[in-house]
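Q: Predict the assembly, please.
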Amino acid sequence: MTVSLGSLRADRPDIYVTGCPSRVVLDHVTSKWGVLVLAALAGGTLRWGELRREVDGISEKMLASTLRTFEADGLVQRTAYPEVPPRVDYRLTPLGRDLVEAMTPLITWVAAHAEEIVSG
Amino acid sequence: MTVSLGSLRADRPDIYVTGCPSRVVLDHVTSKWGVLVLAALAGGTLRWGELRREVDGISEKMLASTLRTFEADGLVQRTAYPEVPPRVDYRLTPLGRDLVEAMTPLITWVAAHAEEIVSG
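A: Predicted assembly structure:
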């Protein structure tokens, strides 16, 4: 899908208004850790400890809260296996995969331009 | 550019590591207000007061800090005109326009799916 820059503002006034659904969801997916957690899960199903190692610097509390938000949003599916010790894993739902697909150009752009921006 | 989901993690390990340039820039552009300020400027040059009205709920302090970060990153250009009363406006640089272009699929996705996610 192609959206021109000029039309972004006119077509999507809702993202600017506090409390509108678009703004709420945008806050979730662009939270400090949200993008990183979603991108980590793009590689496939991960267990809690794997996610923590993958997303360097995230606290237990912040990872738990980010995952709870994404579960409630229907973006991440949590599966608990009745094993000893208990095993829990996390994967993207089809909706979550779709979101990561939409996020990929941004992540790719940031990776490509970060050096230039930080050193500039 | 097409990037498969599976390759996202393998190709971009840097975005996950604290202090790496990609992570720093990702934090800037996905800050609570960063996306909204950039998207607002996608429509064209705006003055301070116009930006504040556009991005509903942003405080003076947060708008100032967000704009300073983007100026330092080379994403936003600030121009002060020697008039009385003083006039200052803000516009995207070519690099900033390029970033917003990369961000557009995400914003479009969020606008399209927000109702479903929030009510789900």
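Chain A has one domain: 14-119. The first helix of chain A runs from residue 5 to 11.
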